[in-house]
Each structure stands twice: as C-alpha cells, then as structure tokens.
Amino acid sequence: KDSEMLKLLMVGAGGIGGYYAARFLEAGHQVVLTARGAHLHALKRSGLTVHYEGREPVHMAAAHDHQELVTRYKSDEFDLIIITLKATATVSVVSELGDWLKQGRAPVLS
C-alpha cells in the first residue's frame, strides 16, 4: 500500500463534500462517501461528477447511507473523517454516528 495514500470518509457528498471528495480522488486517495435518498442512488449508479475548472471528471467511489457505513466499516479504518453537512444536520449525524465515531481514534474534521 502506498504510504502517501489516505483513506478518507466524507460524511455528506453535497456541493462542498462532493467537490473535496473529487479532488482527493483525483489526487489518488481512497474516499468513501455518505449520502441519502436519490442522491445516494445516483452516486451508486453513475458515480460522482463535479464541475470545476472547466472540467467534469467522474469518479466511482464507495457510497453508503449511515446505516450501511456503520455495518461495513470501523471508524478506525479511515485516516480522516470529514463532515461536510449543513450545521443544522449536525445533531442528527451525532445521533446516527456518534457511538460509531467514539469506537475509533480517527480525527474528525467538521
């Protein structure tokens, strides 16, 4: 395994999370995304497409809802967990992922 490659969890693959996920993927890092509803289905079906700098790269990255995430991964599997949700969603994320996050030692950036 390349010691320079990071395994990142992007909680929230909207505008901000999607942009940074695409940039990390383009740089060769492994990124797991969380989303819900139609957005999650679109990520699984068609991948992550982000329009920036006149380009539209498409990246196929693992995408899960929070329940899938906690059953498939341990929080310690990630080098960094990045939360890119609106501030109003923080309470629900803490209730859904708080215990899972506490089981590991991965740094959380929000």
Describe this structure in words.
This protein is an alpha/beta fold. Helix content is 38%, strand content 21%. The protein has 4 helices and 7 strands, in the order E-H-E-H-E-E-E-H-E-H-E. The chain has a 5-stranded parallel β-sheet with strand order 5-2-1-6-7. Strand 1, helix 1 (15-26) and strand 2 (30-34) form a beta-alpha-beta unit. It is globular and about 40 Å long. The mean pLDDT is 92.
Residue share in helices? 25-40%
- Would you list the SSEs in sequence order as H and E? EHEHEEEHEHE
Using the alpha-carbon principal axes, give the shape: globular
Catalogue the unreliable spans. none
Strand order of the largest sheet: 5-2-1-6-7
Number of strands: 7
Structural class, by secondary structure, is alpha/beta
Span from first to last CA?
A: 27 Å
Q: Please outline the major beta sheet.
A: 5 strands, parallel
The overall pLDDT, averaged over residues, is 92
**Strand portion:** 15-25%
Radius of gyration: 13 Å
Query: How many DSSP helices?
Result: 4
